[in-house]
Amino acid sequence: MSLLVVGTVAFDAIETPFGKTDKILGGAATYISLAASYFTKNINLVSVVGEDFPAANIEMLQKHNVNTDGLQVLKGQKTFFWAGKYHNDMNTRDTITTELNVLETFNPVVPEAYQDCEFLMLGNLMPKVQQQVLSQLKSRPKLIVLDTMNFWMDIAMPELMETLKQIDVLTINDSEARQLSGEYSLVKAAQKILAMGPKYLIIKKGEHGALLFNKEQVFFAPALPLEDVFDPTGAGDSFAGGFIGYIAATKDISFENMKRAIIFGSATASFCVEKFGTENLVGLTQEEVDARVQEFVDLVQFDIALV
Amino acid sequence: MSLLVVGTVAFDAIETPFGKTDKILGGAATYISLAASYFTKNINLVSVVGEDFPAANIEMLQKHNVNTDGLQVLKGQKTFFWAGKYHNDMNTRDTITTELNVLETFNPVVPEAYQDCEFLMLGNLMPKVQQQVLSQLKSRPKLIVLDTMNFWMDIAMPELMETLKQIDVLTINDSEARQLSGEYSLVKAAQKILAMGPKYLIIKKGEHGALLFNKEQVFFAPALPLEDVFDPTGAGDSFAGGFIGYIAATKDISFENMKRAIIFGSATASFCVEKFGTENLVGLTQEEVDARVQEFVDLVQFDIALV
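YS: structure for the whole thing
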């Protein structure tokens, strides 16, 4: 049984107040897979790159227990490329360049060996492509998590709404939750979105943490207060990867276990933002991850004795 | 032994997206005293109002165990009045009117019967006035908590810096912490501010919760996700009142107990914002407060089992 990760593998060029990069490894599925690799060993990747994509990157993913048989390498084509610049508050950014390249015609193919998929993480992609993956699976995974963004709400809302009916957990940020629901209050937004199909909703609030809702319960996890956020790129995907990786490792999809998964996801995301791109997600030790999770426990734990 | 609360008692006229009020009861010391009254019984108030201040308001405070012997009622003068309008996001507001009235010449007098002060909450006031209170106390309280705002950083920074050397806990919001320290990162801001004098710093982030720092530790408490925030006026003061009220009730000024106090403060603030002004802070039952605190426990508690 395995974790299937579907999403972009890309090149990013990033500028923050702390510096800038040339084309470096990026993409939602890259961050998700690397983050999940600290919790579970059997990760299958479905994505697409061009022939400009270095073999060393593929080998690095494989060293993190990521099976890349489902990573299409298209001859004569170029890898998806995004360039962006963050503002001083690090919460907002401008897109400088988006070159879809191989993504323009991406036709995901789930290899036969991936059909044992028990947990599925659909990273941010065109909703139609996310549905193509769902339709190729012969049996329904135990848990389907989907990430999406405001862009698809703007241009592909009907397809997105159709996809939402087929999934278990939706992860979006606070402004996307407001856009999708038409409600400013996140509590009201959550109930409207849960009525669209997902059984669970995770609202990511960046430096302000994350909320987990089902129809009856709510859980909140903070982000770790860091001395500096160096580069927020991939934070949401690292969060999702840590979340689904922990779920896949524990095979427990209860609300109680999702709370723990959110803490592990938050811990993984906190590593991601400390350096540029995926740099800090490569080669973490189990001790480093455990120590970071303990920081979260220390950050929020208290004993109440009612007076 | 008692809790001494110093701050404004005022009239507010408030407009939010949900409605508007005529002149209603407001003021930092009002919110602080009412909030504290759910935890501790021996509350002494030092403040000033004009002869336009209704006796019914004073009686209401007294019913909440607030001793008003230190509340000066100035003949022929008018009570401090503030009018403001909140924007749609409820996080920002415009001041429409500020009439200082009795505050212009406020000379705080600590009655002899208040000298048993064990815990002191200095609500937001001119730093010079806060110092006048400190100088009247014959023995130093066990814990001195001070609230201030950006306005005093703009026009009375030397006096504020002097006052910060004399206190134990400073409560400010995130933008004020950034202004006071010159650091964007709240972690760096906290360390700079703690070097200015306070042993503890509470950074209030409104709907995003609150952080408690000392030089070695950090604790985070969320705000309760509410269906609607009706009126944010007084939220920070209710938070401070719940915090100091719980500390006064338990007489424990350890970091561990301050964590609990922050949860009680957050719970009290969550009541405050559900209605206009002080309306929801009058006549709460112990059961309601306890149930609200339990909501906070449920919101953030998790058990981590490292995989």
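YS: worth flagging: Chain B touches chain A through 43 residues (CB under 8 Å).
IM: good catch. Also The domain at 2-300 of chain B is CATH 3.40.1190.20 (UDP-N-acetylmuramoyl-L-alanine:D-glutamate ligase).
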